[in-house]
Specification:
This protein has 61 residues and is mainly beta. It contains 1 helix and 4 strands, in the order E-E-E-E-H. It is rod-shaped and about 55 Å long. It starts with 11 loop residues before the first strand and ends in a 6-residue tail after the last helix.
């Protein structure tokens, strides 16, 4: 899974814990989209998380 090019948010790892407290590996993917952004006057495709898109850190092309 890709990382956000703005904030660096990526995959998170941990454990799924059942009712009987048995543990298995878990992975949580961040909501990262591939969008066209304005960079240095031109358009460029970047991986950006939705929280950076919502906060206005990125200007879409």
């Amino acid at each position: 899974m890709a990382k956000c090019d703005i904030c660096g948010k990526g995959v998170h790892f941990g454990n799924n814990v059942s009712h009987s407290h048995r543990r298995s590996n878990a992975i949580w993917n961040s909501n990262v989209k591939s969008v066209k952004c304005k960079v240095n006057g031109g358009a460029r495709r970047m991986h950006v998380c939705t929280s950076c898109l919502k906060s206005g850190k990125v200007e879409r092309a």
